[in-house]
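Sat 14:20. Reprocessing the chain from the morning session after the first attempt stalled halfway. Input below, unchanged.
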Amino acid sequence: MSDALTLDDLAVPLRVLRVLASDFGRLPAPSVQVSTVYPERLELTFYDDLPGFEAWREALGIAPDTVTYREQSDGLTRVLRTTVDYAGAVVRLTGYADIVAPVLVGGAA
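Finished this time. Tokens:
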């Protein structure tokens, strides 16, 4: 992070956000983040909305095999993540969803 950054230094990811809002306004709304820590990055995050993550992945032409999968919170949350260079910015998609424990019926183990 640099104290010398200005809003102009974030122009590329902000411009990409504007393009995405115009071109893909029909898609589910993500949580959006632009940061001075990574001034070239636009982050789109989906909480409890993996179908929204997938819709954006497809719209941005991101190959499924570039998506990483991991679990956090002692295996209670799945995390999907991928990035793509889009119109000069790095767009990072992240999706979070609960992992539902299987229901045991009739005491079966």
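The first strand starts at residue 31 and ends at 34.
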